[in-house]
Fold these 4 entries.
Entry 1:
Amino acid sequence: MKIIPRRSIERGQADHDWLKTFHTFSFAMYYNGEHEQFGALRVLNEDRVAPSTGFGTHGHREFEIFSYVVNGELEHRDSMGNVEVLKRGDLQLTSAGTGIRHSEKTHGPNPVHFLQIWSQPWKNGLTPKYFTRHFTDEEKKDKWAHVVAPVNSPGVSLEREAKGPTPVQSPVSLFTTLLSPSKSVSHTFPPSIESGATDTSTHRKVYMHVAQTSGYNPNEAEGASVKISGAGADTVLREGDGAYIFGEAGEEMSVENVGDRVAEVFLFDT
């Protein structure tokens, strides 16, 4: 197994007063040719938006766009007529397809902290769609919750609101956990991507990210820490850090909380 850390301080970042944001991959004014995408995963932004502000109405096409709320409330409006306030544990997907317009703004008196995630669809020209899912903290406590999966995966509903993973028109699965101190979870690299595509390679890859739940750009003396290990490789990630991880099908990876507080961890299988 091979682990390549993506440290928080090395990510693209900007402080616009109303918006504090970190970019794992090239986005907006930030460009880094070594970090443009990972498999179908194209955007992973960690945003904090001040009250009474947000992203005004703007357009998207040919991307699968997720909003995962860590804290606060996020108001979504779009050209398909969807109006919704997303809260802690909510995950919303806009399958932009041939084109949509939407806005995302802070709802209520407190800032909103959320992850903005984009993946590339299997094909262009899809009909725009909208999905919402809710996952409780208990569902994620010291175990992986499968929160996003390709549309043709077992247990995936195509209803606007339903139980189970959010459907995505892309070869991406997302798992998340709230990992307590000294606890660990494992991940086994799958034998094939969940889309059922004819990929016969045994080489698999995942991207892992640790949310900045202790605050915007926490210093070394605070925040959660997790250790990734497997097949002779290991590294420690702090809040805001990520890692590119490469393994062979069937290989197992361990994720252990080596800090003193709960860590919110995201694992993208792409």
Entry 2:
Amino acid sequence: MVRMTAIVVCAALAGCQAVPGEGPLASAINKDAGRSSADIGRLNAAVFEIVDVDNRSAHLVSDYVSSALKRRFGIGNAGVGRAVIGVGDQLKVTVFEAGSDGLFSTSESKQTSIDIVVQPDGTAAIPYVGTVRFAGRTLEEARKAILAALVSKAVEPDVIIATGDTPSRSVTVSGAVGKSSQVSLNLSGEQITDVIAKAGGATAQPYEAYVTIVRGKRTGTALLKSIIENPSENIYVQPGDQVFVTRDPRTFTLLGAVKGNARVEFGANDLNLLEAVALGGGGNDYTVDTKGYFLFRYEEPEVITGLVGQGRFNELLRKGMKPNRDGRYPIVYRFDMTHPDSLVVGQTFPIKSRDVIYAARHKSVDFSKFLSIIGAPLGIAAQGAGTVSVVGSVGN
């Protein structure tokens, strides 16, 4: 009789939702998905969307992760472009003459080398030539300008210009590298990994080293591992860029009905959804809802529109979905372990740093808790939509 009363009381308590629990049930997460804060009934509640992890969504997310570097940097992968001389550059100008009695030749040598430094006004002085503008010109353009000025003065002259130190064509590399320094760029152009190598290389493993480029008012950050694995994404640096390498071990958080709630380091180049759950010891056989594995993430808007469509994304924005400071939006991926193909799909779904994986408890767990509460020897009053008191020992 008492057990039947417990069932009635539990129903009155809105499915035992009033019973203390570790996080929300799967039904609560599913219910709040795509709803505005007004619909949820809680001021400033976060608006999010739920997407099932299936073969399509797993491949879409995986493909984006492997090809998003240029978009993440927002800088592009342009080549070196037109390499020009700049203020402060050190040059060696060598003038050759055909005769032995010229301005720059003797009986012992038919050439003279002149070391110059480009001045703040962009010019430098050459004997018998005068002031020459170097800044903004390529080496060939500067060579032709000097040669043209010597045609009527020297004996069949020719000119070669070689670069020394080129501070106008340097980038600053600092952080978790062998030696923080200013790296001069060569004329053929250099990429991210080139300048990092010149600074002694990264001191952290590629899968936990992040590279940030500051160019003017724009910044972009990417994992060094992603840059190495995608050569086309190894963008060219430009003069004046600042490159920062930081060690930040990638971690994810595992919560809910699993054998170990913890913040876990990847400890590897890659990590998929199944591996992440396994690192926490897997789900608890007695409490986990196998249909209720959820991954909470702030996702790139391009990924969300690819998953739900532009129309649905716009609808979520109207309902109040907000981005974080990096321009990413909240999304929840739902993973159903009762499907046989989940063991295949889970291997292709990549985990990102700072992901939160939540394993919801089965709804029967709350009912069991409720029975244990009302079955206490001294009796406990359960309050909610209704109230019942059980005093003394409870039998059959």
Entry 3:
Amino acid sequence: MEGQIALRFQVQGLTGLERHEEMLANKVGKQLGHPTYSLTGWLVTKFFKWQNQILEENAVKLCNIQPNDTVLELGHGPGFGLQAAAQLLTAPEGKLLGVDYSQYMHEMASKHMKEQISRGKAVLYCSDLVAMPIEESTVDKVFHCNCYYFWPDLKAGARAIHRVMKPGGTMVTALRLESVKKAASKNMFSGESWRPEVYMEALQSVGFTDVRMENKREKLITFQAIFATAVK
């Protein structure tokens, strides 16, 4: 009898621990998609610096940005990718745009990009992807990192991006698939939209062509880059 009671309490304790881990994973997942002013949100910004900075800088390189391009970063976070892209837009016509749904990230990036914003070289929007206030067919290059798995509707998001891009424009998506798989196993994402093939199918369905994923390596870190070309 005592053994049965002890076993029951062990099982209950394990179940409670599993529930706690699941709740924590869900909380972290929400903060990754939409950081807020909180301890978890602050920790997420540290994660961005450790995990995203290399991805964002490499996404910028892979975009092959020209000095007079109009470049858009989606889900820009603290602004690492924005800063890297701004250095390449040296021509007077060169312009940088950024969109992030998080007010916290918008304000943080705005501080980091204060000089470029004041000179009119950069414009940042705190906006939902689908509702971003950017004119149709005005963007040459788009990049984003660890972003698409948080979109409520992949096709709607892909369609919104395609709308603002010029014909022949290039989009680069950077991720570390190994890390994404681990996060998915902990239920940090909802559904199957984290899978690259699902995202790539959504891109193709709205008019992107030459959609492909390549393995890349930088500073001993292996990551994946998904390329897509906008066709009107």
Entry 4:
Amino acid sequence: MRPRQNHHTETAEQHLVTRIPTAQIEEEVGAVIARLPEKGFDALEAVYIVDEKERLQGFLPLSVLFATRRHRRLREVMAPPPPAVHADVDQERVVGLAVRHNLTAVPVVGPDRRLLGVVPAQALLQILRREHVENLHRLAGIRRETASARNAMEAPPDPPDP
């Protein structure tokens, strides 16, 4: 996916998390499951299958991973790589891709297709919220969003006085 040329946009890189589960294509499902608890992850929606140069080859949602017989090799059960974005792609395009392809996280790759990380589900929700508020501002005629205007739109309401 090509980046939109705008220097004032928020990008995939700003939402990128890098501690995600990866595995090699020839690994067995059981070996991948066994090492999951050993590491702390920033996002845990799927295992991303990479080659020896860390290029994205496919993925396996955790729900499928845990339902698969432990002796199976990842190459036998993985899904093809999901659509991915480059780090400089506008955040709106990242969310659009997630919605169109029903992704809970969007992989971010370098020019050589090396997996850099993902934009996780929580970030996708935050982006959707922020874009919604920006659209409301535009509809209301607010041209320049200030921190106080954003806070007024995004903050929960104050509790009523007793």
